[in-house]
Amino acid sequence: MYSEMVASGELIRNDADSRQRAGADGLGLHAVQLAGREASAMRKAAEIVAAEGADVIDINMGCPAKKVVGGLSGSALMRDLDQALRLIEATIAGAGSVPVTLKMRLGWDRSSLNAPDLAVRAEGAGVRLVTVHGRTRDQFYTGEADWPAIAAVSRAVTIPVVANGDLQSVADLSSMLHASEADAAMIGRGACGRPWFPALVGGHLDCNQMQQSFADLAVSHYDSMLEFYGEQAGLRHARKHLGWYLDRWEAAAASRLASDRAELMRATDPALVRARLRSLLGAAILSDVEPDLSASLRQAA
């Protein structure tokens, strides 16, 4: 289980939210993703999460967000590979025996597709695996992920390469792996509003799970966020996830009223949110909103 991105500077200042994001959840192997611009902070942050039991430390050099890039971290580091290497070396030094991996993009823009160069340097420093999102920073999430461009990284290094970007269906998996020549695939936005999707792609959903109530799943996820973040912060975090669930339902049913959605997004009473979710999503099961699940159920029958 990967953590959310954790800012190294905030973590070493003992920021409560950063500590919470970096904490293990007891669900299995635990990877913590660190981001930062200062080698000393990255080393200290790696020491902290390694001491607290992280199984893997991942370095984020792929986030395209303006706030992150403006702080000279995330994908901004693809414009300065020497600095990127210093951060990688510092993180590995702080991690001790904990393996360090790296997340990146193809480059800053189409004129600087330097992911293969960064991957080679990272491998030389001791990084154990690299994940490449098939877009440049300038693209953000527009256009299509360029899976064939990831193949240049796969050919440049001997460590495992993970392809990322636009994996939206079971059929996409084989196409992505073939085009990218990668060893594995990472799911990102494809799991938004469909947390069952990674298990579906991995072939780990049985027929009973495929027929789980969509409303029950959404409410359970909502309650888990309230429990993890606390009610006030949990309500804020939950809204984007509720929106993704409704998007999934709208795509399947095409019968949602904007006023109902707006009411749900504004609600501050957890009991009202639960009731409204159950009312809106009705008796739908997962296979009603996931074409790949419907196909699997037909095959099982």
From TrEMBL:
EC number, UniProt record: 1.3.1.-
Q: Which residues hold FMN?
A: Q33, K103, H133, G188, R189
Q: What does this protein do?
A: Catalyzes the synthesis of 5,6-dihydrouridine (D), a modified base found in the D-loop of most tRNAs, via the reduction of the C5-C6 double bond in target uridines.
Active site located where? Answer: C63
Family membership: Belongs to the dus family.
| Pfam families associated with the record | Dus (PF01207)
Q: Does the keyword tRNA-binding apply?
A: yes
What this protein needs as a cofactor is: FMN
Molecular-function GO terms, alphabetical:
flavin adenine dinucleotide binding; tRNA binding; tRNA dihydrouridine synthase activity
Q: Reply yes or no: does the keyword Nucleotide-binding apply.
A: yes
- Supply the PROSITE patterns for this chain: UPF0034 (PS01136)
Q: Which reaction does it catalyse?
A: a 5,6-dihydrouridine in tRNA + NADP(+) = a uridine in tRNA + NADPH + H(+); a 5,6-dihydrouridine in tRNA + NAD(+) = a uridine in tRNA + NADH + H(+)
Protein name stated in the entry: tRNA-dihydrouridine synthase
Keywords for the protein's UniProt record, in alphabetical order: Flavoprotein, FMN, NADP, Nucleotide-binding, Oxidoreductase, RNA-binding, tRNA processing, tRNA-binding
Residue span, DUS-like FMN-binding domain: 1-263
